[in-house]
Design a protein that fits this description.
The chain has helices at about 10-20, 20-30, 45-60, 65-70, 80-85, 130-145, 185-200, and strands spanning about 5-10, 75, 90-95, 100, 105-110, 115-125, 155-165, 170-180. It is α/β, with parallel strands linked by helices. The chain has a 5-stranded mixed sheet with strand order 2-5-6-7-8, sandwiched between helices. Helix 1 packs across helix 2 (about 20-30) and helix 1 (about 10-20) crosses helix 6 (about 130-145).
């Protein structure tokens, strides 16, 4: 009977970078790290709305002005986008016998050919902070796309929704574009080599 190839998600790679022991327990032994808090992730409400917003522009064959001013266009291969949103961008690593994957929010295009990783973020703070994990998220998407044969530029874009409540308890919503430059995709070859050593280890990492 053929065994099913193990899949490791983008968040699994991120977990390894944060805590190799937590990764080993989670991915290999299905022991989850305790959550710091329970609650509704606000992005889960906005992400489908934003996907629909950009898809409507695709259907109308136009580019939102906030994207166009950065000399970018929307990725227009709808079938690929559906797949990469649903099951993720997948890369089978033959030496590791593992599938690495990441489910993207969207993609942008530069000069009609080069892909640009594009992710949505929602915050209730007026001072949005670009964490290193956000940069790594774009890097991992870019790495997986590269391994899938796509040409990817070394920068990515965050589409940020900032939500504030004024003195009259009215919601104020602002949208901003953050361009993250100097993304490093090549380093993930080495990172995954370290990851697979931990994954294959019979000993719990310290």
């Amino acid at each position: 009977m053929k065994t099913k190839t193990t899949k490791i998600s983008r968040s699994g790679i991120e977990l390894f970078l944060e805590c190799p022991r937590c990764f080993w327990l989670d991915v290999k032994h299905k022991i989850k790290r305790p959550k710091e808090f329970e609650g509704v992730y606000i992005g889960s409400k906005y992400d489908p709305l934003l996907k629909n917003y950009f898809d409507q522009h695709r259907q109308n064959n136009n580019v939102p002005p906030e994207i166009e001013k950065h000399d970018l266009t929307l990725f227009n291969d709808i079938e690929k986008l559906k797949k990469w949103r649903g099951s993720g961008v997948e890369f089978f690593h033959p030496q590791h016998n593992l599938i690495y994957y990441g489910k993207i929010d969207d993609l942008l295009v530069k000069d009609d050919k080069f892909l640009v990783p594009f992710d949505f973020k929602t915050t209730i703070s007026s001072n949005f902070q670009v964490y290193e994990s956000y940069k790594r998220q774009l890097e991992i998407y870019g790495y997986l796309l590269n391994k899938s044969g796509e040409e990817v530029l070394d920068f990515g874009v965050l589409y940020v929704i900032k939500i504030e409540i004024d003195d009259n308890f009215e919601k104020i919503e602002n949208r901003e574009i953050y361009v993250l430059e100097n993304l490093d995709y090549k380093k993930y070859d080495e990172i995954l080599e370290e990851l697979v050593k931990v994954y294959n280890s019979s000993k719990e990492p310290q």
